[in-house]
Write a structure and sequence with these properties.
seven-stranded parallel beta sheet; Rossmann fold; alpha/beta; 15 helices; 7 strands; Single alpha-helices involved in coiled-coils or other helix-helix interfaces; 11% strand; Helix Hairpins
Length: 359
């Protein structure tokens, strides 16, 4: 370059060149995914294509910013085709037999000509990433039925994760044409309230003679239940089973009246032996018929939709707050000041919020 040439030299450093290439590849991938995945994926999903459904759920669950808009567009395309499935939440402490129960109940539904999607929720799954194979192993019979779809619903370690990911996954399953959606929770009080807010019927599994009914009252889980089912009850006339049924019915009678106008029932079954599974499902159907006939079904769906709107706003604001560059820059130092006692948590929160607002 001549000494008097004032034009700026082009940047050819390896780091800058690679950075530009990476940005170009990212833009290309985004364009390709938006152009190809979005409309075709939604179209295939609405036809009941399982691969398209799985891929759409993966986009919903993705933490990548570039996937969020695509997932939202797919969900919006599917929304007009949702709402026709019956949504059932199933909970119970670990070891109560939820997976075996769902396996048997699901087969019963399929034998009646229905289709079923099962979403399993475990707030601890973020540690291991969840396991589709594990869930299918636990529900071995359903896994081999083409009318069934089983999917773990990772929560990201929070109740917000349950509400956001599971709710949207449920809607995609409905759009794919499933008649029923079961949502299984871990049953230790971490996610039951969130799941109850998105289903039509909430079913609690309990074990006879273990005191679960009293523990459930303390956690508020029994209060959420529309039906309580004592599993592993091969002989409903045995003293242990009769005492457990009596204790649960007494506990339920102490609860305030349900806004649905339904008095929760206590049922017995043995999922392992396949005993009285049909009776349990008949009670679910009776409950759904009851809340449809008195208008509570539609009322509850409207209330849930309103609640989901506010939850979506709250989560979007929270995400926007933590992604704000100024907050990212300031957060660690303010956090350390709180830890060291140099600043109160209230003062720190106010300072961060003022920064976010540009104040």
């Amino acid at each position: 370059m001549a000494p008097n040439d004032t034009s700026e030299p082009s940047s050819n450093s390896p780091q800058e060149t690679e950075s530009k290439r990476a940005a170009s590849r990212k833009r290309f991938r985004q364009k390709a995914r938006k152009a190809e995945d979005n409309p075709e994926l939604a179209r295939d999903l609405l036809k009941g294509d399982r691969k398209a459904l799985s891929k759409a759920i993966t986009l919903i669950e993705s933490v990548k910013a570039e996937d969020h808009d695509i997932a939202r567009q797919i969900l919006e395309s599917c929304l007009p085709h949702t709402g026709s499935a019956v949504r059932v939440g199933i909970t119970g402490i670990p070891g109560v037999g939820k997976s075996t129960f769902i396996d048997r109940l699901g087969e019963h539904l399929i034998d009646q000509g229905h289709s079923l999607a099962v979403l399993t929720v475990d707030p601890s799954s973020s540690r291991s990433g969840g396991s589709i194979l594990g869930d299918k192993t636990r529900m071995g019979n359903l896994a081999h039925r083409k009318q069934a779809f089983i999917r773990p619903s990772p929560t990201g370690g929070s109740l917000g994760g349950v509400a956001r990911k599971t709710r949207e996954t449920m809607l995609l399953c409905e759009a794919a044409g499933f008649d029923y959606v079961f949502i299984e929770t871990v049953g230790v009080g971490q996610s039951e309230t969130a799941v109850r807010s998105m289903v039509d019927c909430f079913l609690l599994l309990a074990l006879p003679g273990s005191g679960d009914e009293l523990q459930g009252i303390k956690r508020g889980i029994v209060e959420l239940a529309d039906l309580v089912v004592l599993n592993k009850a091969e002989d409903p006339e045995s003293k242990q089973i009769r005492e457990a049924v009596t204790a649960l019915r007494s506990a339920l009678q102490m609860l305030p009246e349900s806004p649905s106008g339904w008095s929760p029932e206590v049922l017995t079954c043995s999922a392992l032996k396949g005993i009285r599974i049909d009776s349990v499902w008949k009670s679910v159907e009776t409950f759904i018929e009851h809340i449809r006939s008195n208008g509570y079904f539609d009322q509850q769906r409207r209330e849930q939709a309103k609640q989901w709107m506010y939850e979506t706003i709250n989560h979007a604001l929270q995400d926007d707050f933590y992604q704000d560059p100024a907050i990212k820059k300031l957060l660690k130092s303010v956090e350390q000041e709180v830890i060291e006692g140099k600043k109160s948590s209230f003062q720190a929160a106010h300072e961060l919020l003022q920064t976010y607002r540009g104040g």
